[in-house]
Design goal:
alpha+beta, FAD/NAD(P)-binding domain, 4-stranded antiparallel β-sheet, 4 domains, 6-stranded antiparallel β-sheet, MnmG-rel, Elongation Factor Tu (Ef-tu), domain 3, Arc Repressor Mutant, subunit A, 499 residues
């Protein structure tokens, strides 16, 4: 790093790899330690080498770090498990995928099932007996763990009244005999883990292929990143995944995608690619991280979105396909296919507004089956679809004038129509927020010299450096009175500078 700009990555052997940009995706390897009982080993996951020199380098550059913790359950040998008395948990018979482009579904009969078992009184007695031997409860673990997937020891401590806890036996691959014991992560000594596993129904003779462990690792305080996921103080150095405080699942994958796009844009001197809170859950996550920060592994929940009706799973393509095309992630063929589907959906909605039920006996009969009183012939199909239980796909089979759509587009149309009033209200909320986000804060603003700001707000604003009033409003330490002060400051600043 020279003059606040990334120049090269230096290998352990001293070799320099020069680049215009670098993305740090260290996962749980950054200054990592594995813990079982009183045993602490400097190691990455599964005995892999951790990243220790990098952690020291970042600290030397003045990057603020904090320590997080996660864990993993034991892996069991499949042919040592008695599945005969366990509940089978099969996959979905209806083909599900992240994209309608997916065609190569694994047939249902070829899918590998999971199985369900439970802890019991004996399991709990073993855990309580050895609780002080767990790394979580003997004082060794200092990092903050994930709130929403606690270890089995923590489940017992937090929910002591529960007589059992559900566990899933998940095949890790169709090509290996390893079974993942979901819900049983722990940091007990190996001999205690054997006793715990053997106390569970179906696992009385199970062989442990890999023992569970807790792992601590370093992360960068996310307030030090901007919305493109680049460190504010080191141009060209980006981060994604657990290094900026998230968990390592969908959150990390999405951040990797965004960091990759923005690293390329940075190299090509293009504007940053930023998704807003009303456009995508990715936008919500990044905004949360860089304006509020986190003290624990961040998980993205639907409750974090104030615009849940706009950021639905069914309209992901309508929200994001065009943006993906603009940054080069979607092919021309895929984009044109999307545009055709979008036109069909819009046509379906528009046609439904301008044709009426009339004396269609089949539709009247269908409505009677749903328990409706006689439908007024002057009711538009748009208004009929709004009624509870009315299915557009079924309706289009009974009315030739309606646009014929596949089941997926029919579902999209139903949601757009049924929630049309609520969606319209939410769009007004978005418009109001965009007005605040249009009130830009000067990059050189000195918050410590603005009269009327609370001390708490001054410190938070100076640390995070929001780009506009909307972002400032979402900072935990900034209160409505502080926002009024900032709005007045912007007004005076604009007058003074003729803006």
């Amino acid at each position: 790093v020279e003059n606040g700009v990334f120049k090269a990555a230096v290998t352990k052997g001293g070799e320099k790899i020069y680049a215009k940009a670098c993305i740090l995706t260290t996962g749980t390897y950054l200054d990592s330690e594995i813990m079982r009982g009183t045993e602490v080993v400097k190691s990455g996951p599964d005995g892999c080498v951790g990243a220790y020199g990098l952690a020291a380098c970042l600290k030397n550059l003045g990057i603020k770090m904090f320590r997080l913790k996660t864990g993993t359950p034991p892996r069991l040998k499949k042919d040592t498990i008695d599945f005969s008395g366990l509940e089978k948990d099969e996959g979905s018979k209806y083909p599900l995928a992240f994209s309608y482009d997916t065609k190569d579904y694994i047939p249902f009969e070829e899918q590998l099932p999971c199985y369900i078992t439970y802890t019991n009184k004996n399991t709990h007695e073993i855990i309580y007996k050895h609780l002080k031997e767990s790394s979580m409860y003997n004082g060794i673990v200092v990092g903050t763990g994930p709130r929403y997937c606690p270890s089995i020891e923590t489940k017992l401590v937090r929910f002591s009244s529960k007589e059992r806890h559900q566990l899933f036996l998940e095949p890790e691959s169709r090509y290996t005999d390893s079974i993942y014991l979901q819900g049983f992560s722990n940091s007990m000594p190996e001999e205690v883990q054997v006793e715990m596993v053997h106390s569970i129904k179906g696992l009385e003779h199970a062989k442990i292929l890999k023992y569970a462990y807790a792992i601590e690792y370093e992360a960068i305080e996310p307030l030090q990143f901007d919305k493109t996921l680049m460190l504010r103080k080191i141009k060209g150095l980006f981060g994604a995944g657990q290094i900026i405080g998230t968990s390592g699942y969908e959150e990390a994958a999405a951040l990797g995608l965004m960091a990759g796009i923005n690293a390329r844009n940075y190299i090509e001197n293009k504007p940053g690619f930023i998704l807003e809170r009303d456009e995508a859950y990715i936008g919500i996550m990044i905004d949360d991280l860089v304006t509020k920060g986190t003290k624990e592994p961040y998980r993205l929940l639907s409750s974090r979105s104030e615009y849940r009706l706009l950021t639905r799973s069914d309209n992901a393509d309508m929200r994001l396909m065009e943006k993906g095309y603009e940054v080069g992630l979607n092919s021309e063929e895929r984009y044109q296919k999307f545009l055709e589907r979008k036109r069909e959906l819009e046509r379906g909605i528009e046609v439904s507004k301008h044709i009426y039920v009339g004396n269609n006996k089949q539709v009247s009969s269908y409505c009677a089956e749903l328990g409706f009183e006689k439908v007024d012939p002057n009711t538009s199909y748009f208004d009929l679809i709004k009624r509870q239980g009315v299915n557009y796909y079924k309706l289009s089979q009974l009315e030739d004038r309606l646009v014929k759509l596949d089941s997926e587009l029919s579902y999209k149309l139903e949601i757009e129509v049924k929630y049309e009033g609520y969606i319209r209200l939410q769009l007004k909320e978005v418009e109001r927020m965009h007005q605040y986000e249009g009130a830009l804060l000067p990059s050189n603003i000195d918050y410590h010299h603005i009269d009327g700001l609370s001390l708490e707000a001054r410190e938070a604003l100076d640390k995070i450096r929001p780009g506009n009033i909307g972002e400032a409003m979402r900072i935990t330490s900034v209160h409505p009175s502080d926002i009024n002060v900032l709005l007045l400051y912007i007004r005076n600043y604009s007058k003074k500078n003729g803006l």
